[in-house]
Amino acid sequence: MTKYTFDLLKVAVLTLCATSYVLFPAMASTNEERYSLVKSGWWGSDYQKISNHCNWTAITCNEAGSVTDIAAHYWPFNLPPSSLKLQNLNLTAFSNLVTLYLPRMQLTGIIPPEIGTLSKLVTLDLSYNNLHGELPKSFASLTQLIVLDVSFNSLCGTIPSELGEFENLTFLSLASNRIEGPIPQQLGNLRDLQELHLSNNLINGTIPSSLGRLGNLTSLSLASNQIEGHIPQNLGNLKSLRKLSLSNNKLSGSIPLTLYQLGNLSYFYLDSNQIEGQIPPEIGSLEALEVLNLSCNSFFGPIPSQVGALIFLHELYIEFNQINSSIPSEFQNLVSLTTLYLSHNKISGVIPSELFKLPLSSLHLSTNQLVGHIPFEMRNSIRLCDVDLSNNKLEGFIPSPIVNCFLARVNLSNNKLSGSIPVQIGFVNILDISHNFLSGKVPSLLVSDNASWSQTDIGRILASLDLSYNHLSGSLPIELANLLHINLSFNFFKCSEGFKVFHKESLIGNTPNFPSCSSQVQKTNKAKHLIVIILPVTCILLIICLFILYFTLSTNKTKIEQRQAKNGDLLCIWNYDGRIAFQDIIEATNNFDFQYCIGTGAYGSVYRAQLPSGKVVALKKLHQSESQNISFNESFRNEVKMLTEIRHRNILKLHGFCLHNQCKFLVYEYMERGSLFHVLNNIKEVGELNWRKRVNIIKAMANALSYMHHDCIPPIVHRDVTSSNVLLNSQLDAVVSDFGLARFIDPDSSNQTFGVGTYGYVAPELAYSWTVTEKCDVYSFGVVALETLMGRHPRELISSLFDTSPQNMLLKDLLDSRIRLPHSQKDAQDIALVVTIALACLHSKPNSRPSMLQVSQQLSSSGQSPLPLSFFEISIHQLMAQEL
Ligand SMILES: *[C@@H]1O[C@H](CO)[C@@H](O)[C@H](O)[C@H]1NC(C)=O
Ligand SMILES: *[C@@H]1O[C@H](CO)[C@@H](O)[C@H](O)[C@H]1NC(C)=O
Ligand SMILES: *[C@@H]1O[C@H](CO)[C@@H](O)[C@H](O)[C@H]1NC(C)=O
Ligand SMILES: *[C@@H]1O[C@H](CO)[C@@H](O)[C@H](O)[C@H]1NC(C)=O
Question: How confident is the model over 644-667, as a mean pLDDT?
């Protein structure tokens, strides 16, 4: 009570101060605004420090001092939870408000009816909050809105049909709420609409055919509702559509043929409905398709050979249908395919060996009627990490090694495979080959012959092995008992001494031999009598042991403490002999146990290690093979020493290295969010990468490369700039990693190298020349910059740039469609500038590319010229024609 009057008093005083120098006609209204802001309590005590509320966090005013924007990404004030109630802000006061942008602010309460008084409101974003209740009736008067996003709240009620009168609306999202009732057909009047998101609600009824009038729509998602009926024919008119998501509804009928005319459709999700019919040959005209999910429907008949035309297809899911053809040989044309799920159909024929020429990482063909052998080529497919061929009629031998990917999971169970278990299984983590006709002994080392891994490493990689229901026999290698899960049941194993180490449950069904094992167990029972004699002796020994243990522990403890003090931070690792740091690392990672492994790359595996000091570092353990020769060690030492001396805020800090007979590793700063590639491809995280953050990441890369090229003597060329080598910390700030690594891995070739870089990022001149220059990095930078803004690799774009008759693509269509188009002028300018620069970096002639110094200067130049056109009209070709 008293606090409230005190606050009011302060407001009054401050208001007086404000009035004394702000003498505008609109004064009365700015005072009301100020009063409303203070009274909301949202700004904590900020207003005591800054008199003019226009300068407060999240507030923007017009020249007359009236609030136009309330926009924030996060709230810096330390307020008690749930005090950010939307009703507490009296919205009536803000007659000039244009932007109310408060996503992820933990707002609670309802959307107050006063919102209807904001007649100038253009952007309303209250997404990812905890708002409940219905959209108020007064909402109908917000007809100026261009962006309306209230997704990820707990709103209920129905979709107001008045939304159909919001003529300027380009973005509408009510996704992930509890909205019920039908989709009003009036939404078909929103001619400018580009994105409509209604997924994850309780919407029922049918898809109104009026939606077919939304000619500008690029993304339509109605997934996870209770929508029924047929897919309307005229959705085929949505020529701009890039993403169509109708998953998890009750849609029936067949896919209307008109839908196959959507030449821009890249993402098509129709899974978990009741769609039936054949997949028609017309599927081949969806040329832009990248992801197609038709799983869990009633498609029958063959997969048409025209599927082979979908050369951009990355992921194809047709699980749980009634497909009954063989896998068409045209699949070999799907040169982008990484994921193929065809399980639970009636697919017959053999597995075409050409499949393994594709960049597949996941292959699920389980529960079909496939026959023939597992093609030997499977073991050559280096990316294949997840294979499920279970429940078919496959016969013949298992390839050796089975796969070549690190930590793979493989299920070949329930087939007719015969022969013995391959001695080399590769880096398989989970292996199920149960229910087959495998015979012979279980090989003692289920390991790969890859020299870069020691046997103990491999032993740790295999974690689960199911060999049950085969015809295996002989004795058992006892190492297998260390696996997390092992099943040897229902085979013909002979009992031997080693059997005791296995859990009984993992050996059942090995009759008639198993009982003789239990008799051995009984022998040990006889030994019980001996215990009576041994027990007193043991007790005495035990006491002595405890004493010894106590003393060793206490001396050890001081040793560890000494070491901590001596080592301190790992920064100075070379000042000590490698052994000490090595011990810390071995302890922190439990001798490079794979549970600490956070990734693998071309040079080795990366581990997360928490040092005794509490500091977390990343360890890059290099593959073994190089460490054998002495000249390598020498150059390694020199090179790394130089790299550790580099200090730049956009370059991953290399704290030190460790050379040891057994292993060699680099110690790096730990980046919490992993690689840019990871975040861009993670549906949960990508939303956090807004345009500002993305532009900053690109600037950081440019600064890092510019520093290495122009401020280091001699210049250091990275050689492998990719989105996987750009790492992000918890704030999503970027650093470039692996600088110089390429060179010391291959020290003999100062400028020349074989097979440098990563496919998709290397400059075109490296195809005919082996000379690596800074300009190769510039090219790769251009690729990653575009990838950052597009959210995916710009493959098609780059090839289309050099077409003789290029299609005139618009800038806005290039941008990552998973986040909203930029709505601030600054973001729009930055994006246009980045794309202009990136395109210049992709010039096919190295000399025509800008230098990284020019790039970083351009990007940081403050006085940017305003855009010549509206952002939505700028085309890629205009940007290509721009002078830098
Ligand atoms: C909200 O502000 C308006 C005008 O500024 C005022 O008339 C109204 O009384 C205020 N409402 C509340 C609940 O404070
Ligand atoms: C494809 O559909 C299946 C079945 O509904 C679903 O489990 C899976 O997550 C979908 N995958 C993608 C990438 O949409
Ligand atoms: C596939 O199923 C259809 C009907 O469902 C049938 O007409 C056709 O003969 C079947 N094809 C094969 C190869 O079994
Ligand atoms: C091994 O498989 C058999 C038969 O399926 C099962 O009864 C047993 O519980 C399994 N053992 C383990 C350890 O999972």
Answer: 76
